[in-house]
Amino acid sequence: MQEKTKYSLNSKAVAEATEIWLTKRGVTKEAIAELVYFLQKDYFPQLTQEECIVNVEAVLSKREVQNAVLTGIQLDMLAEEGKLLPPLQEMIQHDEGLYGCDEILALSIVNVYGSIGFTNFGYVDKLKPGILVKLNSKADGEIHTFLDDIVGAIAASAASRIAHRKQAEREASGDVPLR
Amino acid sequence: MQEKTKYSLNSKAVAEATEIWLTKRGVTKEAIAELVYFLQKDYFPQLTQEECIVNVEAVLSKREVQNAVLTGIQLDMLAEEGKLLPPLQEMIQHDEGLYGCDEILALSIVNVYGSIGFTNFGYVDKLKPGILVKLNSKADGEIHTFLDDIVGAIAASAASRIAHRKQAEREASGDVPLR
Amino acid sequence: MQEKTKYSLNSKAVAEATEIWLTKRGVTKEAIAELVYFLQKDYFPQLTQEECIVNVEAVLSKREVQNAVLTGIQLDMLAEEGKLLPPLQEMIQHDEGLYGCDEILALSIVNVYGSIGFTNFGYVDKLKPGILVKLNSKADGEIHTFLDDIVGAIAASAASRIAHRKQAEREASGDVPLR
Amino acid sequence: MQEKTKYSLNSKAVAEATEIWLTKRGVTKEAIAELVYFLQKDYFPQLTQEECIVNVEAVLSKREVQNAVLTGIQLDMLAEEGKLLPPLQEMIQHDEGLYGCDEILALSIVNVYGSIGFTNFGYVDKLKPGILVKLNSKADGEIHTFLDDIVGAIAASAASRIAHRKQAEREASGDVPLR
């Protein structure tokens, strides 16, 4: 006789699934890190690609971010398989301009690192640099209505995290006038 | 030879689907209106159930609200059918406390009627009066992880809408001192 | 014997103050409408400056928007007069990058017209076209830390409103396939 | 000849001002911790007052939180002194129901610890337990229109933080089934 397993959240499983699903959907940490570099290079000329990756990883370690990534990718995949009910199926499939739940989930990611990330999120979401062009190409029937915005949000969050860290470094090094 | 129909949003279809899906999932406008009455009766003793329904209908006519309703119900239904990938399946199925995408979608509804609705949303979400108890009972294997929060958000939004309208009525009737 | 006047909100006074304060701070509806045109001209080539103004006026008629405008301008003015306490005075005066309450108030404006406005808000906030350059110039000791973001948010909201209206027009004209 | 000091953010000064201003306005960490205990005691019966304080301190160490605290208290104080322009002065002075910028700033605090805090924020904001009654009493001409909501938001955020930590502890102790 099989006993019903009591539910209990397994955080490691959630974190691992986030990493696996992102990879399966064609999004590497390196690709997100490039967006971060694009956003921050003018403010911090010494910024390295490695630092960008470290900050992307830190953002991805947050539960709230993992939840949004998994939920968004799940909806994209179901839309790809045509398994959503109309008219939701059509709105997500065609990345309908008046459908904003993708931006909503993306913003929940940005919020974790504070409001200074809103600007960067909107900027990359409009310009679509790097990996974002590819996610938007709709090549081979792929649908990335949610992932597109989510990747921009992770990059904007990592950029905010870097801005906070750089300030802390500057202050720790004594490069701040006493008042 | 069949031509591929060009995609074009059909707003009426989205509005109708919202109404149909809510009904199918056991949520009537009357039940939401009762939550609104619960929230506002102390502030507006003359408030009628009919007024509450009118305001719920106004909230439901907003595109942003319809998008959130359809997306949330879709995820609930897929979770009920066990069609989501683990660990998302388990988190939504068990209304995991650390999973917050349901609150995120709900908040996007509240936002449309402004920040004064946050308090009412949190209040009914905690107390679970009326229809919200039923949605939370998990009876017969039903899953309403998203709908639960969404219904609370619609009620909170209708309450905000009433507060704005009542003020306008008061001012139109001249019951405001000149300054 | 003077009786203490009972407080009662005067909505007309709030709406008028919003218009007056914006004008005093150098922001005309026409200047905001130009930002709207910049954001939407590629999507709606027939769009006129007059339509943009009408939509800006509609956004400005919302209470939530008026509250954010008045609160933001008030803080800018107090900072200009040096009347805020340190370190808040310094953060607002220098538009400190890690201070995000200006973006927070701006987002509360965008939210009223839904999440599809986030992208446009971030975009103009980064590019600073038209009136936004002037607000950022810090010429003559003027401080527009809040107003800068608020004006971008009003423009993004008006752009969202236009997107919703244009869809409604298209559907009313029968230019949508039946399904 | 005096040189103009170049502006540079001093994070320590911001953190210290936050602590000092809260104390001056009658809000101790202990009082906020009591709200946290009120919110979480049913879920975590072993929870101690000390743990609540530690979590309140962690929330208060976040820049985004400090910015909202300082901005909100500043507006409260200026309203107390009658130094805001009408009609903003009257709206903040009377904690006008249709003025929602206080909830906006509060929500920016809650957001940092994710959407699971919305419910707790709304709940304490409605019930007004502990210190929140006092902040709302308007005794002696004190105005706490912003601080009231901000304190509720800090408590809700600390409650979210505890929920995340407790889950991590449970998993670290092996009290989670392998899957």
Please characterize this protein's 3D structure.
4 copies of one chain form a homotetramer. With 179 residues, chain A is mostly helical. Chain A is built from 9 helices and no strands. Chain A has helices spanning 11-24, 29-40, 49-60, 63-80, 88-93, 101-112, 118-127, 131-136, 145-172. In chain A, α3 packs across α9 (145-172) and α6 runs parallel beside α9 (145-172). Chain A is globular, with a radius of gyration of 18 Å. Chains A, B, C, D: GO terms for molecular function: phosphatidylglycerophosphatase activity. Chains A, B, C, D: It comes from Paenibacillus roseus. Chains A, B, C, D: Residues 31-164 form the YutG/PgpA domain.
- Under the CATH scheme, the architecture of chain A is Orthogonal Bundle
Largest sheet of chain A: none
CATH classification, class level of chain A: Mainly Alpha
Show the largest interface.
Answer: A-B, 34 and 34 residues
Q: How much helix, percentage-wise, in residues of chain A? A: 55-70%
| Subunit arrangement of the protein | homotetramer
| Domain count of chain A | 1
Tags for this entry?
homotetramer; YutG-like; globular; mainly alpha; 9 helices; 179 residues
Walk me through the topology.
The structure is a homotetramer of 179-residue chains.
Chain A (H helix, E strand, L loop, with lengths): L10 H14 L4 H12 L8 H12 L2 H18 L7 H6 L7 H12 L5 H10 L3 H6 L8 H28 L7
Helix pairs in contact in A: 1-4, 2-3, 2-9, 3-9, 4-6, 4-9, 6-9, 7-9
